[in-house]
Amino acid sequence: MEIEPTGTQAHQAQDDTTSSSSCCWLCLGEGPDASGMPLVRNCSCRGSSGFAHLSCIIRYAEIDGRNSYQSMGNIGAAFQECPNCKQEFQNDLRYHLERARVSFVEREFSDDHMLYLRALIHRVRVLNAENDADRAEGDQICFKMVSIIDEMKSDHSQSDWSGEFMKMEAVVMYVIGLFQMNVGSEESLQEALEYFGSAIYLFTLLGDEINIISAKKNIAKIEAKFSGEEISHDEGNDLEFSKRQYKYWLGKLGEQHPITIRRGELLAHALYCSNQGVAAERLLAKMAAISRQVHGPTHNCTLSATSALKDVKDRRVFIDSRRQWFHALKYENDGLSCVVRGPVVESAGGSSSSMQEEHMLTLSLPITDVFPGPGTPVVCQGLSERAHLNGKIGDTRGFNGG
Length: 402
What we know:
Distance between the termini: 45 Å
Radius of gyration: 25 Å
């Protein structure tokens, strides 16, 4: 078991816009519902399909939930994913449906503590901790989840508190820690440390190594914020952890699921930070293509993977004569010279950015003056001891310039 660490999210993205041929696939109405709410869609449906009124989706999800509970003991997935494209809702639509799911469970199934906790966990994960109303709601949910756990423990002996019960408690502790960490105040960060510590204890009893590492990484972020020091990264361990996470979700959900695509994007980032630019670019190209085909060009996953792919395709080179970093554009003269544009400057936050357009220079420089940055893909040439690599693409792992 691993928790997908979405944390709290802003819910500002807009739903897909309707066309003149769009109608609610549930009530077949073409305009707003009786309360004036428009048609919405925020899944992976295309064209004119998949649009519905929020009220209709909630009504459908409640009916499906009651039927599912009678037959399977849960409320199904209609609050979480579109029954047409079988993909998760996102953005504003997900935000409103998670609230509707909690209301539904509170009204009809509040005695089912595990079901109630799952609904509360999903709700708190879409709240925006920077919004006052969401933060207040999140605090109430966190208190409610702890109270439910305490009530469940009072109904079970210590020997019975294992398996699914302990897993649920661990997830609750972890999710509360995430919410408090996103609130960001000194008091909430202290609380987050306590909840992550409790989660680590429980995950240790469960043998859940991946979530132990996730919780420890969050603790390290909080401690670094308190101390004012930068987090020390072990790139080898970060890469291995990212590989394990991606493999876990790939095996559990398949390569087309948004969670797997997000984990693939994070793995690509770890590869890039480990100076493995070729592997990072190939993985991101795959993630972007899958997301575009399955979820559409405007889906969050597609936009994020495409943006990340654009970033890793940026070829940075160090110009020895100018002692500055530039963007490499192309080779000329059979590879004897390189056209570059820049320079690249360090922003206040330590990230790289280009100068304003009017101050940018485009230069053609001899290749002997150009040193590819770590992780930059290069074509091997002129190797004698390893001549079999000539003509092959590889990564720059280091250089002597600068």
